[in-house]
Amino acid sequence: MAVKTMIEAIRDGLREEMERDERVFVMGEDVGPRGGVFGVTDGFFKQFGENRVIDAPLAESVIAGAAIGAAINGMRPVAEMQFADFSHPAMDQIMNEAAKIRYRSNGAFNVPMVVRMPYGGGIHGALYHSQSVEALYGHIPGLTVVIPSNPYDAKGLLKAAIRDPDPVIFLEHKGTYRLIRGEVPDGDYTVPLGKAAVVREGSHMTAIAYGMMLHHCLKAVEEMAGEGVEVEVVDVRTISPLDRETIVESVKKTGKALVVYEDNRSGGWGAEISASIAEAAIEYLDGPILRVTGPDVPAMPYNHAQEEFFMPNPEKILHAMRELAAY
Amino acid sequence: MAVKTMIEAIRDGLREEMERDERVFVMGEDVGPRGGVFGVTDGFFKQFGENRVIDAPLAESVIAGAAIGAAINGMRPVAEMQFADFSHPAMDQIMNEAAKIRYRSNGAFNVPMVVRMPYGGGIHGALYHSQSVEALYGHIPGLTVVIPSNPYDAKGLLKAAIRDPDPVIFLEHKGTYRLIRGEVPDGDYTVPLGKAAVVREGSHMTAIAYGMMLHHCLKAVEEMAGEGVEVEVVDVRTISPLDRETIVESVKKTGKALVVYEDNRSGGWGAEISASIAEAAIEYLDGPILRVTGPDVPAMPYNHAQEEFFMPNPEKILHAMRELAAY
Amino acid sequence: MATSTKSKVDSNGRRSKSSATKSQHEALGLGKEQLLDMWYYMLLARSLDERMWLLNRQGKAPFVISCQGHEAIQIGVSFALERGKDWFLPYYRDLGVCLALGVTPRETMLQHFAKRDDPSSGGRQMPGHYGYKKYKIVTGSSPVATQFCHAVGVALASKLKGSDEVTVVSGGEGATSKGDWHEAMNLAGIHDLPVIFLIENNQYAISVPVPKQVAGGSVAARGVGYGMPGVEVDGTDVLAVYEVAREAARRARAGEGPTLIEAKTYRLTAHSSDDNDRTYRGREEIEIWRAKEPIPKFRQYLLDSGVATEEELGQIKQRIDGEVNDATDWAETQPVPSADDTLKHVFASPEEKAQWR
Amino acid sequence: MATSTKSKVDSNGRRSKSSATKSQHEALGLGKEQLLDMWYYMLLARSLDERMWLLNRQGKAPFVISCQGHEAIQIGVSFALERGKDWFLPYYRDLGVCLALGVTPRETMLQHFAKRDDPSSGGRQMPGHYGYKKYKIVTGSSPVATQFCHAVGVALASKLKGSDEVTVVSGGEGATSKGDWHEAMNLAGIHDLPVIFLIENNQYAISVPVPKQVAGGSVAARGVGYGMPGVEVDGTDVLAVYEVAREAARRARAGEGPTLIEAKTYRLTAHSSDDNDRTYRGREEIEIWRAKEPIPKFRQYLLDSGVATEEELGQIKQRIDGEVNDATDWAETQPVPSADDTLKHVFASPEEKAQWR
Ligand SMILES: Cc1ncc(C[n+]2csc(CCOP(=O)(O)OP(=O)(O)O)c2C)c(N)n1
Ligand SMILES: Cc1ncc(C[n+]2csc(CCOP(=O)(O)OP(=O)(O)O)c2C)c(N)n1
Ligand SMILES: [Mg+2]
Ligand SMILES: [Mg+2]
Description:
Distance between the termini of chain A: 43 Å
Structural class of chain A: alpha/beta
Shape of chain A: globular
Strand order of the largest sheet of chain A: 3-2-4-5-7-6-12
Mean pLDDT of chain C: 94
Oligomer: heterotetramer
Bound molecules: thiamine diphosphate, magnesium ion
Number of strands of chain C: 7
C-alpha cells in the first residue's frame, strides 16, 4: 500500500468513481483547467473533458440546485463548494430541497448527489475560509454528513457517498489536506457510511472527535498515556446520522467523556454527542461531559494570535483530559 | 391591563416602536396593504405610509441584506420573513453578514436590525410552513435569537430587540398567535434579552422549553402535580446567548431535567441545553437528561395523522415526566 | 443583440398574431381533434379547481391554491411537448399542466384530500405541490423558484446524455425576483441548455403587484441579458401560447438553447384559500380581466371558427362533470395516511439500497 | 425601451469617446490639478500593490489580492463622488478607491500586516477586506456579491431620510452570477434608488473566463431588464470611466435612479497570492492586455496632452516611493493584535449598549 495525503486519497477516490461510472461528473468553481483551488480535481479536465468536469459560474445555489436536477435525471453529480463558508447561499437548495425530496415525494424521487466542501481553520483563512458547518447540515434529516480524518477513510467514504442513493455532504478539513498522510490501498474499496470507529482503545476515559481535531486528540492521548491514563478515542466519521451506539458503548466502558470540536461551542455538533450520552449513559458517568471547542465568536480571525486563541489544540485538550482524569 | 393574543401583543409592540422612533420601518413580503399574511402589520400601511411599511419583492436575501445596509446607514429595520421555512435563502446574509459585521470590523460597524419569522407547526402547514429554525440561528455567535411564549414577553422582548444595537432573530410560533392570550400592559415596557424565566416552581424535576412547547409542558405539569410530582418549568425565552445560569440553578435544585423542543431531535437547540447541564451539574443529577422532541424526519407532513405523530404534545411530555419521576 | 443571431423569435416580446388569411389554428396546423383536446383539458382543470374550492368551503379540505386564469398558458405549453419524453417542473398553479401530461382527476383528488395513495406525496405535502415520476413531472416544494435550478440540472443531464428531451420549468412573475431564477437563467444561457422558462405572469404575488415586483416591468425583456430570446405572449390565448411554446421546444430540441416565455394573464381567485384579496385589489379590476379570461375566450373561438357546435361542447362538459364527480366521490372514500408511516422515506430503505445501482 | 425615457446614457453600452475637437479632459472640464491628483492615486495604488507582493514573497505577509489593471476604473469612479458624503461598498480589489477616498498608505499597510491598529478589522480579516467608517466605506466580507444587497439598503436609507447621498457598490463580473446581485438590482430598480452598480470586468473569476460566467457575454446588456441604464466603458481609460460615473452620480443625486456600469479591463496579476494563473491562461494573452493597461496609458495621455512634464511626473513618483517606504517601515513595527481581544466585539459591550440610542 502506498502512503498518501488526504488530498491524494480524495482525488484517487473521485477519479476512480468517474472511471467506473460515466454518470459521475463534477461541477464547481474552478474545478476545470485550474483543477480546483486545492487541486482535488487536478488533471481531471484533461482526462474526462469539459462535459464531466464543469466549471460553474460563481453561483452556489444553482451549483447545488442543478446537481439536484441532474441527479433526478439519472446522473451522479459531485458538486464542489469552493469553501464550506460559501455554502450558505446553497443552504435552501441543500436543506429544503435535496434533503427533503425523497420524503416529500413519499419515496418516488431521490437525489443521489454528493456535495464536497473544504472546511475548518488554522490556515490563516480568517472569518470566511475557516468555518465549520457540520452542525448546520448535521441537523437536517435526509442529509448524510461525513467527515473523514485520514486518507484511507477519505477515499472509502467518498466512494460510498457517491454510490449512496441519497444526498451526502462530504466535509474535508483543509488542515488535513497535505498534513495528514496514511496508507491507502490502490483500487476499489468503500468505508460504510454511518459508522464511527474506535481508533484507540483505553479504559479511563473516552475522547470523541472528528476531522483535524481527532489528530489533536491523539497527540494529547499519548501524553496522558505517559501519565498513566488510557484514553479511548472515537472517530465519529459520519456526523449524521450519528452512530450513537459506538459512542455510548465506549463511554459506558470508560465512565468519562470528552467531546472535542473546532466549531463554535454553543449548538456545535458535539452538543448532540454530549446530549446523547447524557440521555443513554448517565449512570455510567463518573464525571461531567466536558467539551473542548472553538469559542462563541463569529469566526476565526486572520491574525496569528487570535486564530491560535480560537483553535482547539493538543495543549487545550490535554488540559481538559487532566481535569477529567482527576475528577 | 387588557388581555391580548400573541399577535395583538406583537402588533402593539411594533406599532409603538414605530411611533416612538421614526428610524424604525418594516420590510417584507405582503406587509403593506395586505398587513402581512398573519396580520401582524394590519393597519400599518395606512398609519405609517409606504416609506415605512415596504412591500418587498419576493427575495429573502435582499430583504435581509438591504435591512443590513439600512441599519448601517442609521435606520432601525424590522424585516419579516413570511415563514421561517423561507429564511434559508437569507442565511448567508444573516449568518455570514449581519452576525459577523461588528466582529469583523473590530467594532467599527454594527447592525441594529430585527428579523421576525413565524415558525413552528401543528397548523397543517406541511413541510414548508411548519419548520423550527432556532437551532440553525442559535448556533451563530453575533445573533441574538428570541422566542417569546406569551403576549407579555412578546411585546416586551420585541421592543428590547428593536432597541438592541445588534441583530436579533425574533421567532414567533404560529400556533401561539391566536391561541395564547395573556395580560399585556398598555404603553411602554421592555423584557430584557438573554434572561430565561422560571415560570413555575417545583422541587422534583425541571422541564425546560420555549414557544408553544412551554404551554404543552405546563399542561403536563398540572397532571404531574396531581400525581404528587412538582415540576419546575423554565421558559428559555432567549435561545442564544443562552441563560445557562437559570437553567443549571434549577436543575441543581431538582436533580432531574427534561428538555422539550418541537424541532428535529438531532442537533436541536435542546441538545445544547442538555450538554450545558451535563457539563455543569452532573453530580446533581438523579437521572438521565431526557428529551421530548420532533422526530428526525425532514419536516412535518401535511396530513393530520403524520403531523400529530411529529408534534410533541402534553401526552408525550407527560409520558417522559413519569419515566423520569420514576427513575 | 445577443439573441437575434440565435433565434427567429422577436426577443423584445410582443408577437403579432398569426397571419389573418388563415384562421389561427389552421396557421398552426391544428385540427379539430387537437383543439377539442385542448378545450377538454382547459375545462377539466377549471372544473376540478372549482370543485376544490367547494370542498374547501365545505370543510373537507383545509387548503386550495388555484389555476383559474392560467388554463390557456398551461394547456398551450403542454401541447407543445412530447408526453412521456419531455420533463416538466411545475409550480403550485399548474394543475392544467399535470392533467394534460396524464395525471387523472382521481389522482388529483387524492392529493386534494391528502390521502394515503396520493402519488405526489402520499398526503405529506399541501395540495398544489405536484410531482409524478411516471409522467416526468418533478416533485416541487413550497420555497418559490428553487425549481428553476433543478430544471437546468435536468436539462444539463439531458445534454450530457445526448438525449433530445426538452425541459419546461414554470413559475410566477414573483418567482423571477429570486436569486435562484437568475442563477438558473445564467447557467442555462451559458451552456445553451434545452430548457424553457415559463413565467405565468398573473399580475400579483399574493398582494404585491408587478410594479413593486419586477423592475422595468417586463420579465420578457430580461431574456436578452442572458443571451436568450425573451418572448411575451397573451396568456389568455391558448393558441398564441401554443405557438411560442412550440417554437421554444423546437429550438431546445435542435440544440439552439433556452427560451424565456412571459405569458400574461390574471389570477381570477384569491392567492389561496388562506388569502383575502379584498385588502389589496378592487373588484372592478377583477371584472375587467374576467371579460378577457381564457375559458370563454377559447369557447367562443371554437364556435366562431366553426370547429365545434354548442352540442359538442355540451357533451364535453357533461363528460367532465361526470369525471369530477367520480373523482371526488371515489377519492373521498380512500384511506388516509397512517401515523406509522411517518418515519418512512427519510433515506432509502435497506431493500432500496440493495437494489440501487 | 424602459431606460431610454429615464436617461441620456445610451443604455446598450459602447459610448463613443468625447468630441475630438477638445481634448478629453477639457471636454470633461478637468484641470491640471485634478488630472495630476488622479495620476497620483493611480500610481499610489499600483505602487502599494507592488510592494505588497514583494512583502508577500519575503514571507512578511501571507496573502495579497491585487488591484493591478483596475486603477483607472477605481480612480475614475472615486473622482465622480463627493468625499465624506457618498457611500462606497467596495470589494477586495478596490485599493484605489479606498486611497482616493482618504485611506492612507500607513492604514493600508496596517491591514496588510494584520496589525492591531488596522482600522478595517484590527487584523481580523484578510488583506483586501476594506471597511473604514470615517470615510463611509462599508465593511466587506469574503462571500462574493453580498455587498450589492447592503448597498441598496444604504441607498434605501438615504432615500427614506431624504438625503442626496449617492451609494456606489462594486464587484467583479463573476459576482454578477450570484442571486444577490440580481435581487439587489431588482430592488434598486423598483424603488429608483440612488445607487451605482460598478462591475469591474477583468475577464476572469479566478480561472473561469467570461464565456463560462456571463450568459450572453455582456453585463451592461442586463441593465435594461431592470429598467436602468447599462453602460459599458473602457476600464483602462480613467477619463472615460470618470465621465460615465459622473453621469451616473448625477442621475442618482437627481432622483433619476440607479445605473449599471460595466468597466472592462484585465487582471494583470494572478487572482491572489494563492493562485497560479499559468494553469488557465496563456502568457501571450497577458502581454496583449499589458500593452493597453491603464497606468502607462494615462501617463502617455498626460504627456501628449501637455498637462504634465516628465519632470513633474518624476516628482510625483518620488513622493509616492517615499510614502510607500514610510508606510511599510512604520507599519511593520506596529503592535500585533493580542489574543486577549479575541472575544471582543461579538456584541456591543455594556458601555456601548449604555450609550446606544
Ligand atoms: C422563498 C419563498 N418566499 C415566500 C413564499 C410565500 N409565497 C408563496 S406564493 C408567493 C407569491 C408568489 O407569487 P408569484 O411567483 O407571482 O406566483 P403566483 O402565486 O402569483 O402564481 C409567496 C410570497 C414562498 N413560498 N417561498
Ligand atoms: C460566494 C462565494 N463563492 C466563492 C468564493 C471564492 N472566490 C473568491 S473571489 C472569486 C472570483 C471572483 O471573480 P470576480 O467576481 O470576477 O472578481 P475578480 O476577482 O475577477 O475581480 C471566487 C470564486 C467567494 N469568495 N464567495
Ligand atoms: Mg403572480
Ligand atoms: Mg473578474
